[in-house]
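PROTEIN DATA CARD
Card holder: Mycofactocin biosynthesis chaperone MftB
Chain length: 95
Origin: Streptomyces thermocarboxydovorans
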Amino acid sequence: MTTPAFDTARPYRLSPSVALRPEPFGALAYHFGNRRLSFLKAPELLELVQRLDGRTSVRDVLAGVPERRREAIRRALASLAAADMIVPTEAEPQP
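Structure generated from the sequence above:
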């Protein structure tokens, strides 16, 4: 099975099967479906994951990250997507 590429132009959101537990270092993310545990190793990453609401592209969320941290955060989000912690969503229909 091939994992789809992480597309920063798409909107993502926290999987409904994932619970986040904030910690001083960032957060623990537990997926109840596949039983994976992931560490969000920076409070900044936790904040970004919480802002991924399915209406904003990852690129838009990353725009607020300092340039020097942007690639590391993008890789962390791609890793969370590969583990099904965050999932792509369809754009909301326009009225």
